[in-house]
TrEMBL record, chains A, B, C:
This is Hydroxyethylthiazole kinase. NCBIfam families: PRK09355.1 (NF006830). ATP binds at R115, S161. GO terms for molecular function: ATP binding; hydroxyethylthiazole kinase activity; magnesium ion binding. Pathway: Cofactor biosynthesis; thiamine diphosphate biosynthesis; 4-methyl-5-(2-phosphoethyl)-thiazole from 5-(2-hydroxyethyl)-4-methylthiazole: step 1/1. The gene is thiM. Substrate binds at M40, G188.
């Protein structure tokens, strides 16, 4: 995990983000803070090209336009053809029809990772009707069996975010505990986590590091920064600032001291 | 008023926001700070569905796409059919033709509240040509007669934001004084107020509380947080952070101590 | 330069921004902090009208929709017809085809200024393939000859942003040194600089001040605020807040003390 975070800082992976209308700015600031470089490109013609150039691609199906959705359908296979990892963030999938169809179609396009809350993972798999917006109404563990099956069928590392994050591959489950209750009160912490998963995967694939470790690294860094920031403030406005500062200031070697990581 | 703010914190109303391209992030962070849950959903097919599920709907006609406008036209009647309150924020209406037509069409769709500055309320009613962008070039009181007529004909509570906020129903006018001169220097304080009006209305309607009081509650909370934040800083970057912290930290019982509320 | 900054604070120029999906909020907050008024308007029908009313227009060709691009094509000539200055920010031009065609078409529409990093200026002129996203992979000085030719042929003041900013007219080059290494770690500092160039040009043109000086003034103010903010913090989250505070708090007379300005 530490090796992946060091590789991100060393190589500055360029992350192509196709994300929702709410979080582009915080996503970009988070990627810069962790040592990556963001580029938001949604137009279909440009997205298809850029996905082959960037280190990794994020597709977040939260609030977007029909034009952006067309771009996502073209960018995902382009990234795969070029050997680039891409991450699917199935925001509110299961609850809303257009994005549910889109996300299920995209699962067949070989994402390297899928990151969502338990409701979204269950909604993507067709097991539940999804959460209310970005809320997690299911506990992470309730989605474990579904995540394991999704990992096996899609080939992706599946991450279920919650008070305890579960990172699930076909043969491995990692639990990351840390962070702060204030994180869900700052919009975009989940969406920016998806982008950071992409950054870690981009750096890991280029350097030949383990991709399950890369997904764990992103979650551990986020939780560690949340733990650190919560020591300085108790309200969400100043927490947001402190958390971005912590993402920037934490050395990779400090991350493991601030979170609990369990393998099973 | 205090009862409405307590009900927001107790019930976490889900606010469906269809808003302009500038303010989604700050709007979401404000809704989270006041105890509500945001969801931005603009695609026509999804917006029409989600408006029936959310506690309340915000339609802010500031900078949006033709696709989003189509979604707004479908979402407003869907919300009304499902018994959900919706709020119209007529940004720069009167000054620009597409949004003026849109906003005037939407007034006929039974908004529970209309919130804007004096220029926008006058522009919506066809009395003036509207302000320059989001600036208020008319004083709130100059729009009082127009607001009262708009309240009577539309059935909405009409709120005119300014140094003194006027909340106007057919038979009641409430004046809220407080806040800070720094608030107009932070983008989205007005737009996020529209979203918070929706949160308060969603909570109030579900609990059977008075809807004029709900609109007053949102304005009082915003002004109180502005008053509190202005005690800690004199520049807009740090004011923005302090203001979001104050929205989160102020207990409903503290709000009335920080603002002046006059009924007439 | 000081006269331009004073004129901005005195006249509150209204800046019509057509910008990318990542930076509208920070751009608006920066414009408010420096004393201008922002309005983001992208719909073609409205943009064409508003460009004739605003003090100045910014066209930033970073991530936008086809609908917005159509609006840009209509707004630029409308601004020129009305005697309003407009600024072109050629984000990632050279690297991506749709925006490269758009930006090259727009150069023929008489921009008052063009602002980008060295890669983007070279990409706009067709000299290189552009940078990777918003990164500057070329040093500012390497683009000087190209910028001088672009200034001569387009009639625009051409600004090349970097650790040292170069402001280039056909017969004058100004170098501005200052700021902080943290500025590239805050998304939108470059894009908001383009908007502030527009604000300074809008104020300068209305008051009959020199337009090269206006472009210098925007760069000097940004660098001075960066220098001031870097004295208070060493991480990008808190730097962003301190930098916006400094943009608001710095008096025009203080700017020259915090940066180095060389004419040649």
């Amino acid at each position: 995990m530490q090796a992946v975070l060091e590789e991100v800082r060393r190589s500055t992976p360029l992350v192509h983000c196709m994300t929702n209308t709410v979080v582009p700015e915080v996503t970009a600031n988070v990627l810069l803070a962790v040592g990556a470089a963001p580029a938001m490109i949604d137009l279909p013609e440009e997205a298809e090209i850029f996905a082959t150039v960037a280190s990794a691609l994020l597709i977040n199906v939260g609030n977007g336009s029909a034009e952006q959705h067309e771009g996502m359908r073209r960018a995902a296979p382009a990234a795969v053809s070029a050997g680039r990892p891409w991450v699917l963030d199935p925001v509110a999938v299961g609850a809303l029809p257009v994005r549910t169809t889109l996300a299920r179609d995209l699962v067949a396009q070989h994402p390297a990772a899928i990151r969502g809350n338990a409701s979204e993972i269950l909604g993507l798999a067709g097991v539940s009707a999804g959460g209310r917006g970005v809320d997690a109404t299911d506990e992470a563990d309730s989605a474990l069996a579904t995540a394991r099956e999704l990992a096996a069928t899609s080939g992706a590392v599946v991450a279920i975010s919650g008070p305890v994050d579960l990172i699930v591959s076909a043969d491995r489950v990692t639990r990351v505990t840390g962070g702060s209750d204030l994180m869900p009160l700052v919009i975009g912490t989940g969406c920016a986590l998806g982008a950071t998963v992409a950054a870690c995967l981009g750096a890991a694939r280029a350097a030949g590091l383990d991709e399950h470790d890369a997904v764990v690294a992103a979650h551990a860094l986020f939780a560690a920064a949340g733990t650190a920031a919560a020591r300085t403030t108790h309200a969400p406005g100043s927490f947001r600032t402190a958390w971005i500062d912590a993402l920037y200031e934490l050395a990779p070697a400090q991350v493991a001291e601030l979170v609990d990581i369990q393998e099973s």
